[in-house]
Specification:
heterodimer; A: 57 residues; mainly alpha; 2 helices; B: 198 residues; 72% helix
Chain lengths: 57, 198
């Protein structure tokens, strides 16, 4: 019985999950959001510096 | 694109396409930064110093992103944002080394002196960073995948499904990193041209 359980577990660990199984799906979503916010902050920063340069002209 | 089903990790395994390329991109950016630092020390060309600083800055940005995304991932798999794991701590120390680089740059007024001192610092900090992040954590036990007897994700990737997304993701994030650096290089060049026209 125990051996059977282990075998079933091994079988399960080799299967694949699709995106429609949403368990813990929010983690990569949060990660993408963080990176997106980071890049936007970088671009806003650059935008501000460029504006300063344009005003000097 | 389906991913291997693993307990605890579950769908968060998809972070592999974001968190890991951040560190790949960072290492590449810092390598290029160190390369331009060496080139500056050889040729004393101001432009190389400018490039070296820009690549280091984007590298630091990627590193901070890598740390934050790693913390989110850790919270949802290990149950805490931060553990005193050798991989995590040495990554943090590595980031501090490079933050000290930016402090060093902003604290020296004289342009020539700033370029020379920061180039030397850069050349020394890159190998130290590599040892901290890639060598030391592998010598001890670590929670982090791929370190200290803990398997990396390549062992879960039985039919290369992860690789099919992972490799393009790495290339893509590297290209974005180099583009960000290039933008700031072009900006600095314009700024220099305006402030001291020849």
């Amino acid at each position: 019985m125990m051996l059977l359980n282990i075998l079933i577990q091994m079988q399960q660990s080799a299967t694949l999950v699709n995106a429609d199984d949403t368990h813990k799906f929010f983690v990569p979503v949060m990660v993408i959001a963080v990176i997106f916010i980071g890049i936007v902050v970088y671009l806003i920063n650059l935008d501000r510096k460029i504006k300063k340069l344009e005003e000097k002209r | 694109m389906p991913v291997p089903a693993l307990p605890i990790l579950e769908q968060s395994i998809r972070n592999l396409y974001y968190h890991v390329p951040m560190w790949f991109g960072m290492t590449l950016l810092l390598l290029v930064s160190a390369f331009y630092a060496v080139k500056f020390l050889y040729k004393q060309n101001e432009e190389d110093d400018l490039k070296s600083a820009a690549y280091a800055n984007v590298g630091i940005f990627y590193g901070v992103m890598g740390l934050i995304t790693g913390m989110i991932w850790a919270k949802n798999t290990w149950g805490t944002y931060w553990t005193n794991d050798p991989k995590l701590n040495s990554a943090a120390i590595g980031m501090l080394i490079y933050l000290a680089y930016t402090v060093l740059r902003s604290s020296i007024e004289d342009e020539e002196k700033k370029a020379r001192v920061s180039a030397v610092y850069n050349v020394f900090s890159f190998p130290i960073f590599c040892v901290l992040v890639f060598v030391l954590p592998r010598l001890t036990d670590s929670l982090h995948p791929g370190n200290g007897g803990n398997p990396g994700f390549n062992q879960y990737d039985l039919d290369s499904r992860l690789r099919m997304v992972f490799y393009p993701a790495v290339i893509g994030w590297c290209i974005i990193g180099f583009w960000l650096a290039d933008l700031s290089i072009r900006f600095k060049k314009l700024e220099n041209k305006q402030t001291n026209p020849l």
